[in-house]
Amino acid sequence: MAKIESQYGSGKLPAPIPVAQEVLSAKAKVVLTAAQVASGNIVTFVVLPADCVPVGYVINADDLDSGVAALTFDFGLLNAAETAIETELVANSTLAQAGGLLLHTASKAAYDALSGVAVDDVDRVIGIKFDTAAGTAAGGDIEVELLYKAA
To answer: ∠ CA(42), CA(150), CA(145), 5° rounding?
Structure first.
């Protein structure tokens, strides 16, 4: 397992911290090589500040599977060691098989998963974990925009 980090995901660029109930946005893009599109790899995008909850997201992915479409990933809040998805917002997404957009409003289940995220007093990292390997991995971009507010 390898971890690939955006500048926000690594903490090099801090996410804005809300001072009231305003909704803030942090957007991070990661350019992946074909070798990085591998089962078990983790990609970090944004640090969700302590005492904040996510209220929306947009995932924009290139076609990262140029062979027989098989690539899937989970998206959500990573565990403290950043080795697995602890709070799943999207499970087994096929978005990167052909590329496209995925929004938190895509289904009632997606909206309910987002609404169910509890506040925490520590920073948490938002990322993806590739579950099923690509038929033929291809390099490309994945971009995540996270919307969040103070709890």
So the answer is: 40
Helix and strand counts by DSSP (H, E) for the chain: 1, 9
As for how many domains the chain has, the answer is 1
Asked if 90 and 110 count as a contact pair (C-beta separation under 8 A), the reply is: yes
- Looking up residue 115, the CATH number of its domain turns out to be 2.60.120
8 CB-near residues (< 8 Å, 6+ apart): 14, 15, 26, 28, 45, 46, 47
Report DSSP state, residue 106.
Answer: S
pTM of the model: 0.94
Q: H helices within the chain, ranges in order?
A: 108-115
State the residue for tokens 């390997």: 133
Rounded Cα distance between 80 and 65, Å, is 29
In a domain, 87, yes or no: yes
**Long-range pairs for 91-95: beta carbons < 8 A, 24 or more residues apart:** 92/131, 92/132, 93/59, 94/69, 95/59, 95/61
Query: pLDDT digit string (tens) for 71-103?
Result: 999 999 999 999 999 999 999 999 999 999 999
